[in-house]
């Protein structure tokens, strides 16, 4: 059983206004927070991990499900131009999903 985190509700509320970025040290639960706790509040969450060759191809081709209520990018910080892809997609698609905006959840580890 997963323990609900105090950040979960704040993250969900923030999605009404903006993209959400979560960073932190390795192995603290960023992926679990995104996939299990936050995604449970949205219909049709899509998860992409930059470390997966198949997911990486989909990210580079902007291959998102049209009905995604939440899009999660994990480890995308490993791609040098990740900010351009995410911002470009968000700016392009936010009007398309005005009634049901797609939300982007970005996870990245902080290397110390």
Order of helices and strands: HEHEHEHE
Structural class: alpha/beta
Residue stretches low in confidence (pLDDT < 50, at least 5 long) are none
Radius of gyration: 13 Å
Indicate the mean pLDDT.
79
Helical region count? 4
Coarse shape: globular
Q: Helicity level, as a percent range?
A: 25-40%
User: What is the strand content?
Assistant: 15-25%
Q: Could you tell me how far the N terminus lies from the C terminus, measured between alpha carbons in angstroms? A: 30 Å
Largest sheet: 4 strands, parallel
Total number of strands: 4
Order of strands across the main sheet = 1-4-3-2
Task: Please give a handful of descriptors for the protein shown.
112 residues, alpha/beta, four-stranded parallel sheet, 4 helices, 20% strand
Summarize the structure.
With 112 residues, this protein is of the alpha/beta class. It is built from 4 helices and 4 strands. It has helices spanning 7-14, 30-38, 53-60, 82-93; strands at 20-24, 45-49, 70-74, 103-109.
Task: Please describe what this structure looks like.
The chain has 112 residues and is α/β, with parallel strands linked by helices. It has helices at 7-14, 30-38, 53-60, 82-93, and strands spanning 20-24, 45-49, 70-74, 103-109. Strands 1-4-3-2 form a four-stranded parallel sheet, with helices on both faces. β2 (45-49), α3 and β3 form a beta-alpha-beta unit. The longest helix has 12 residues, at 82-93. 18% of the residues are buried.
Layout: helices, strands, pairs:
Elements lengths: L6 H8 L5 E5 L5 H9 L6 E5 L3 H8 L9 E5 L7 H12 L9 E7 L3
Parallel strand pairs: 1-4, 2-3, 3-4
């Amino acid at each position: 059983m997963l323990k609900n985190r105090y950040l979960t509700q704040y993250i969900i509320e923030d999605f009404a206004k903006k993209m959400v970025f979560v960073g932190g040290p390795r192995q603290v639960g960023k992926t679990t927070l995104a996939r299990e706790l936050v995604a449970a509040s949205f219909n049709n969450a899509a998860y992409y991990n930059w470390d997966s060759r198949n997911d990486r191809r989909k990210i580079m081709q902007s291959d998102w499900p049209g009905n995604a209520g939440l899009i999660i990018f994990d480890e995308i910080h490993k791609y040098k131009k990740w900010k351009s892809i995410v911002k470009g997609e968000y700016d392009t698609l936010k009007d398309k999903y005005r009634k049901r905006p797609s939300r982007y959840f970005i996870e990245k580890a902080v290397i110390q």
